Amino acid sequence: MALKTRALATVTGLFTLSTALAFTVPAASAETDPALPAPTGARQVGTTSLYLKDTSRPDTWVPSVNARELMVSLWYPAKAHDGQRAPYMTPKESQALLKGSGITGVPGDVLSKTRTHAFRDALPVGRVHGMPLVVLSPGLAWQRSSLTSLAEDLASRGYVVAGIDHTYETHATTFPDGRVTTCVACTVPAEERAARAIRGRAADVSFVLDQLLGRHSKWKGSVLIDPSRIAMVGMSLGGGSVPETMLRDTRVRAGLNLDGPHRVAIPQRGLQRPYMILGQARQDATWDRDWPHVTGWKRWLAVHGAIHSSFTDYDTLTQQIGVDQGSRLPGNRSIEITRAYVRAFMDLHLRHRPQPLLDKTSARYPEVTFEGRAGTSPGYGNTLMLQDVQAEPA
Predict the structure, then answer these.
(1) From the CA atom positions of the chain, what is the Rg in Å?
(2) Which of 154, 165, 238, 370 is the most exposed place for a label (fewest CB within 10 A)?
(3) How big is the CA angle at 43 (ends 367 and 221), to the nearest 5 degrees?
(4) pLDDT (average), residues 365-383
(5) Segment holding 43, helix H or strand E
(6) Is 47 exposed, middle or buried (0-12, 13-18, 19+ CB in 10 A)?
(7) Using CA atoms, how far apart are residues 34 and 51, in angstroms rounded to an integer?
(8) Strand 119-120 relative to strand 131-137: parallel, antiparallel, unpaired?
């Protein structure tokens, strides 16, 4: 199937660049529906969605809406199940995502056909207070589903994972009553958007934790969560929100930033809990600025050949539908790398299991180099790729 694309006119959306570029498109694409790689753990994975409403504050982007509404997906170890696998997203969400990203020439619903591995509303299993919780915050305009492959993998290894759609910060979020909200934040000037978005996301995460861990939890499996072992992973704008969230909510014991600039600086008083940056092989001035203020365990890792979307499902999925973004990580390689290093970080800091992968370069992942560690100044590799430095200005 021949594909057509047009140059991007904006710097928000699914596959964004700092300058307007046209995608290089092959003559044909795969004939099968796109699919995520299978989880690597031994446990079967269930998933469910929660609708949450915070009546204590108005919406971050639409003040006339006097309560903040959120959609949250949970992934978790589940009882053996042969039922229906969860959809990746709705056809309308797929259409909005592709349109907002400037991608044409593919069926609008193509991403909604993506094969996942979690079973919808499967019965959660595990020991009471036996599982760590990882909260996921996606990039600007991207849905929580963009991190599904990571979430499924962590759940298959005994984690509970909560992915948040930050309302009015996605191309499309679907609510149980059929409403679909769009990206109001994308219309706000970048210099105004940054602080509002990051502080709003910190409040969103704290509210979700309240709803999961409180006496009247919104999820029947909440008793499985160990409230003393909580971490956050954010991608792009979500990644830049991790330090602010950790500083505001001490329940978040460790944080991992996937290629997200620090649009709100880490204060001089410092961030003392474990923090890691996993991003493109590029120098980011905000990371360099804030590195000395991360005073606890820390790592800064660069993935050579990666592009901005390599830290989500989208690098793999766009290759499958025939859209070439310029990634040098073929097939599922971007997902393999992201899963491995996120899992190592979580196993070290939430399960206290030694992780040599985080101490030295690995022959298994030669694309990954160490740019900074605890007690050192960051350094940069000799070869830096042309990259979308401000791929998602916040």
Answers:
(1) 19
(2) 370
(3) 115
(4) 68
(5) none
(6) buried
(7) 28
(8) unpaired
| Cα–Cα distances in angstroms (integers) from residue 55 to residues 31, 69, 168, 231, 354, in the given order | 47, 9, 17, 25, 42
Beta carbons of 259 and 280 less than 8 angstroms apart: yes
Q: In residues, how long is the chain?
A: 394
E-strand stretches of the chain: 45-54, 68-77, 119-120, 131-137, 160-165, 173-174, 180-181, 225-235, 254-258, 275-280, 298-303, 368-373
pTM: 0.89
What's the CA gap between 342 and 344, in Å, rounded?
5
CA dist., res. 241 & res. 199, Å (int): 7
> Hey, CA dihedral for 173, 335, 205, 188, is it positive or negative?
negative
User: What's the sign of the alpha-carbon dihedral 183, 184, 187, 191?
Assistant: negative
pLDDT at position 80: 82
Region for 7 from its dihedrals, namely left if φ exceeds 0, alpha if ψ lies in -120 to 50, beta otherwise: beta
Does residue 26 register a pLDDT over 80? Answer: no
Query: Rounded CA gap, 259 and 280, in Å?
Result: 6
Nearest to 259 by CA among 288, 284, 289: 284
Q: Are 118 and 47 in contact (CB under 8 A)?
A: yes
DSSP 8-state class, residue 282: S
pLDDT tens-digit series, residues 104-162: 999 999 999 999 999 999 999 999 999 999 999 999 999 999 999 999 999 999 999 99
The string of DSSP codes covering 162-224 is EEEE-TTSBS-EE-TTS-EE--SGGGS-HHHHHHHHHHHHHHHHHHHHHHHHSTT-SSTTGGG
Tell me the average pLDDT across 201-211.
Answer: 98
Q: DSSP string covering 90-101, please?
A: -HHHHHHHHHHT
The CA-atom distances, in angstroms, between 121 and each of 211, 219, 270, 307 are: 18, 11, 41, 34
Closest CA to 163 of 183, 184, 139: 139
Q: What is the largest CA-CA distance in the chain?
A: 56
